[in-house]
């Protein structure tokens, strides 16, 4: 093993996470007082403004995958690798176009489940719940695992301890503050992420001579500059569709659409997409500087931290490198974990407990009930993360499943008449064929197949025996 | 410190440890991770050439690390060898092939993907515009 | 091959854009705070 130039002591690792954790939990308690009822807790009073709205959407979409994988994409797939990753922002930009319609269709809407129940009945709603739970849980668990891995590789903290610490911090402040806490902390975390990326990127640029760098890349790493690099282009549309499926269906985004002020919400999502777009390039390009700057990368998955700390050492800031990396990555994880905890708990309370089982909770007992559900989701996450299974594979396999929901969402929002059974058959066929494609044709085809099959079925559903959506096309309540 | 007469290190000690993995199949993206042993802990020199005879070569890495990720390699065969820096002795050459995804399959994949993405984005935009008009 | 100027513009542009984004968020926060429209 190489000497990790970015290592920090165990005490420092614990210290940083606990200090930040105390900050988030304190803010969670403080902001949580604003939540006077269930609507306050789950939807932050439906009054979130542009700054907080944009920041929360952007920060939630920046996961530790973004900050850690972007350099790996740049290193292995070059310029097209970074550009392809940036297209993940398109999902947020397109969701901005959905929002006005969502608010018109469901003015008292609480979750994405409300929409699926409304447009596709109990069966469609159940399909949605199964798919979204699979996807959300695998995202949540893989974030928790990444947290444990991070603390272990940076500070030598045993995996189980580090993973538990990060999860407990996120559970606590979500518990105490609901969506107010999630959105408030997301704003701070988004600034830390952006400033961290700019700081390291700027340091790299001061060390880099673009002429020499370009020449080095052309000589030693020519494929990275290729206009048509197959490995990079292979997955560009597949990953775009995966991203669309993730954003269009998931309650993390729908809850934000309901939480923001009505006229603000489309702008906030559009702005969040614009804010997100440059991040894979700004965070990733440092990997392209490694060769020209003579920085050796001992293992692919260490690309970001290795280059960042090498460059910081060159600038005399070596000691701070590990701490900076830990803070930025912890913020990336926390901003996603808290959103997933909140959104998944909302679904369980509203759609499963109330919707499917008819167990309504009155306002007086709501906070207690919500706390139980949030802790329950957290415990389930811990149980699935503890054995350190490669859950990230479950996340990738969920690509065709969420991809098959893209067109049903579009049709349900914008079309008046549809053959509902055909759409639902499309979801099932898309999911099954997509998963088959994942193993038979390659991971880079799965979401494309899932989305494509569902698209064909949904378009057919518009023309083959369509029936008007049964609920009148005006304001509806969710009860 | 070592004190020994003559050659203190032999190339049998500095050797690629993942040779089998490297030679088992081509790399589809031009990235290879070379790993080697360095029991005597001297600075090594990693060299790359376009031919197995190493008639001309480039030095890719010099230092104490025991692995290196080399990316962006062009399609074709690449040869690597490693040895102590400053010495002439080198390990046996390891051959790595880089072979990209077939261009015709790529064309079809991009075509299909492009169609689905364009239809998706187009339908969303049309739907949103129509809703906007309908609500005025 | 991507040209050198594209390479440079892409990287510097992305960094500048990211920095601008952070500043925009702060400005928007202040504006929201002044108008009482934070949340």
Task: Describe what this molecule looks like in 3D.
The complex is a heterotrimer of chains A (about 475), B (about 140) and C (about 40). With about 475 residues, chain A is an all-alpha fold. Chain A is about 75% helix and about 0% strand. Chain A has a two-stranded antiparallel ribbon. Chain B contains two helices and six strands, in the order αββββββα. In chain B, the strands form two sheets. Chain B has a four-stranded antiparallel sheet. In chain B, strands 1-4 form a two-stranded antiparallel sheet. In chain B, β2 (about 45-50) and β3 (about 60-65) form a beta hairpin. The termini of chain B are far apart. By secondary structure, chain C is an all-alpha fold. Chain C has one helix and no strands. The longest helix of chain C is centred in the middle third of the chain and has 32 residues, at about 5-35.
The SSE string of chain B, one letter per element, is HEEEEEEH
Shape of chain C: rod-shaped
The secondary-structure class of chain B comes to alpha+beta
For this structure, what is the CATH homologous superfamily of the largest domain in chain B?
Immunoglobulins
Note the total helix count of chain B. Answer: 2
Low-pLDDT sequence parts of chain B: none
Described by the principal axes of the CA atoms, the overall outline of chain B is elongated
Counting H and I runs of at least 4 residues, what is the number of helices of chain C? 1
Keywords for this entry:
heterotrimer, A: 479 residues, mainly alpha, Sodium/glucose cotransporter, 21 helices, 2 strands, globular, disordered C terminus, C: 39 residues, 0% strand
């Amino acid at each position: 093993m190489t000497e990790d130039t970015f290592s920090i002591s165990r005490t420092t690792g614990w210290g940083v996470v606990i200090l930040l954790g105390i900050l988030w939990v304190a803010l969670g308690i403080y902001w949580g007082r604003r939540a006077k009822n269930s609507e306050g807790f789950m939807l932050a009073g439906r009054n979130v403004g542009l700054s907080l709205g944009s920041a929360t959407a952007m920060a939630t979409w920046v996961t530790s995958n973004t900050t850690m994988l972007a350099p790996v994409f740049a290193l292995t797939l070059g310029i097209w690798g970074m550009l392809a990753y940036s297209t993940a922002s398109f999902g947020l930009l397109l969701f901005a176009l959905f929002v006005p319609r969502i608010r018109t269709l469901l003015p008292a809407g609480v979750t994405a489940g409300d929409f699926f129940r409304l447009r596709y009945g109990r069966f469609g709603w159940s399909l949605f719940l199964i798919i979204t739970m699979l996807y959300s849980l695998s995202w949540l668990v893989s974030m928790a695992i990444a947290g444990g891995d991070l603390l272990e590789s940076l500070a030598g903290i045993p995996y189980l301890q580090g993973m538990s610490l990060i999860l407990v911090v996120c559970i606590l402040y979500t518990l105490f503050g609901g969506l107010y806490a999630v959105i408030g902390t997301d704003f701070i975390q988004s600034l830390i992420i952006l400033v961290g990326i700019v700081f390291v990127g700027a340091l790299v640029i001061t060390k880099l001579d673009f002429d020499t760098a370009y020449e080095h890349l052309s000589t030693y790493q020519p494929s990275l500059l290729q206009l048509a690099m197959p490995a990079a282009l292979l997955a560009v549309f597949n990953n775009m569709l995966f991203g669309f499926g993730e954003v269009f269906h998931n309650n993390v985004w729908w809850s934000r659409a309901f939480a923001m002020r009505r006229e603000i919400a489309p702008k906030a999502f559009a702005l969040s997409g614009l804010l997100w777009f440059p991040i894979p390039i700004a965070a990733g390009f440092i990997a392209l500087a490694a060769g020209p700057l003579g920085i050796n990368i001992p293992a692919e998955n260490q690309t970001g931290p290795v280059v960042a700390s090498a460059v910081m050492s060159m600038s005399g800031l070596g000691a701070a490198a590990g701490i900076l990396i830990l803070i930025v990555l912890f913020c990336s994880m926390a901003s996603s974990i808290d959103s997933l905890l909140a959104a998944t708990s909302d679904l369980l309370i509203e759609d499963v407990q109330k919707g499917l089982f008819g167990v309504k909770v009155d306002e007086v007992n709501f906070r207690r009930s919500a706390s139980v559900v949030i802790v329950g989701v957290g415990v389930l996450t811990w149980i699935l993360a503890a054995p350190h299974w490669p859950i990230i594979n479950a996340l990738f396999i969920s690509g065709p499943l969420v991809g098959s929901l893209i067109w049903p969402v579009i049709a349900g929002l914008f079309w008046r008449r549809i053959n509902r059974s055909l759409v639902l058959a499309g979801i099932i066929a898309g999911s099954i064929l997509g998963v088959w494609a994942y193993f038979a044709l390659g991971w880079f085809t799965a979401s494309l197949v899932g989305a494509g099959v569902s698209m064909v079925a949904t378009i057919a559903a518009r023309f083959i025996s369509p029936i008007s959506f049964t609920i009148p096309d005006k304001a509806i309540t969710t009860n | 410190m070592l004190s020994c007469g003559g050659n203190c290190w032999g190339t049998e000690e500095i050797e690629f440890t993942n040779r089998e993995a490297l030679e088992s199949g081509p790399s589809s993206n031009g990235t290879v991770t070379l790993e080697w042993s360095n029991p005597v802990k001297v600075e090594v020199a990693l060299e790359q050439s376009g031919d197995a005879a190493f008639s001309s070569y480039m030095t890719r890495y010099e230092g104490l690390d025991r692995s290196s990720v080399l990316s962006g390699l062009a399609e074709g065969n690449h040869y690597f060898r490693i040895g102590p820096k400053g010495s002439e002795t080198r390990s046996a050459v390891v051959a790595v092939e880089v072979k990209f995804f077939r261009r015709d399959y790529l064309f079809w994949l991009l075509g299909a993907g492009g169609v689905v993405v364009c239809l998706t984005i187009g339908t969303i935009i049309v739907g949103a515009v129509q809703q906007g008009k309908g609500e005025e | 091959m991507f040209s050198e100027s594209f390479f440079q513009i892409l990287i510097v542009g992305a960094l500048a854009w990211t920095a601008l984004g952070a500043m925009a968020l702060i400005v928007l926060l202040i504006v929201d705070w002044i108008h009482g429209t934070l949340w």
